[in-house]
Amino acid sequence: MTDPDGSVLSQRLEAIARDTGLTDGVKKELIAALSAQAEAKAGREAEQTRFAAQHRRGRWSTPLAVALTGLITLSGNFAFYYWRADQAAVHQSAQADQDAANARQIAQANAEAERRLQRDKFEAEQNQAALSFQYEVIKSELAKRESPEARANALRFLVRVGILGEPLILSEIDTIIAEVQGGDADALPPVGGAGTEYSHDYSPCKDTRFIDRAGPMMVDRMRKVGGLDGIAISPDAPAWIAALRDVLADNGVCAPDQIGMVFAIAAIETSGFSRFEVTAEQARDIFERFYEGREGLASELYPEDGAVEKFRNRGLNMVFGRPNYEFLATALQRPELLDDPDLLARDPELSARAVVATYRRLGLFSRCPPGNCDVDHILRRTLGTTAMSGRVQDMIAAATRYLEEAQ
Predict the structure, then answer these.
(1) What's the domain range around 45?
(2) Residues contacting 103, CB < 8 A, separation 6+
(3) How do residues 31-65 score in pLDDT, each as one tens digit?
(4) Do both 218 and 321 map to the same domain?
(5) CA-CA distance, 143 to 139, in Å (whole number)?
(6) DSSP notation for 289-300
């Protein structure tokens, strides 16, 4: 880029040098003056340039500029650290979620293990209590028989009425017979004992305030106090509960403690309304443990091939053995039960009617006047033991409180 002022100065100096009218001395003075003028101008321009640069630098050195620069720096630092904190929070949240999921899995596994333990403990307690009761019943009833034939008939009778749900092994029965000293030759008293002052009326409930409230919420409370809430309830339980409620209402079971008694025993029989039949494999296992090799007892309950699986435990009161199915087929006027015993596991109403028919056969409702149930007697005739009497009475009390809450 050319310098216009420098070009003009050069032209002037050249013109002075060529001018023949000027003396050399004058030419020197003019050239010196022009050179000084040019230097002065150049100095001024340099000073202006330096001042402009200083002014530009000075604008960024003012307090406002410094403050703005600091603010920008702080903002940048804040944004960076906020991003880092946010990333740390996201990571921490993800880790917390993973820890919570792991904790839930561990808790679920522990709960499942506890449920299995409680179920196994409950079933073992039931089996042990049943065996103890059967031992005492056999000793008591065989003491009234002198001859082996009479004692054998007594055993068959106890099996038929369901008291010997899982009979003792033959060696134990032989031990009992050896211990008995003989005794009364009178006929065995009817199951359920002598009559009581209370006579149950099987006509429908006139006052349905209590029976109408019997349902899943009542059963839930009973399961908790009875230690059965660790066993998962069946999704079909509401239908079975409703069927039992309706059949009880039709048969005059109207008082809170009567209702609670029937539901409590049904809850224990079905492991808290969790199942309404045993599998064929379970039935075979029961047979092998308690019946195999005992021809007298086994042939009474399971007289033909395949009867173990066919007449296995079913329903709200876990009916088992051909004699008991024969009784219900007659009592309920359902002869097809003998050909299709699974009806008791498929039809909640039929199963509920089987409960009432069994209680009626054993005279149990007459042992349960409103407000004064003979719980121990009823347990001996249904579960075969009084070992769980305290638990059952707690369940009855829970049901009674629930049924009376809204009254």
Answers:
(1) 4-52
(2) none
(3) 777 777 777 777 777 777 776 666 665 555 566 65
(4) yes
(5) 6
(6) HHTTT-HHHHHH
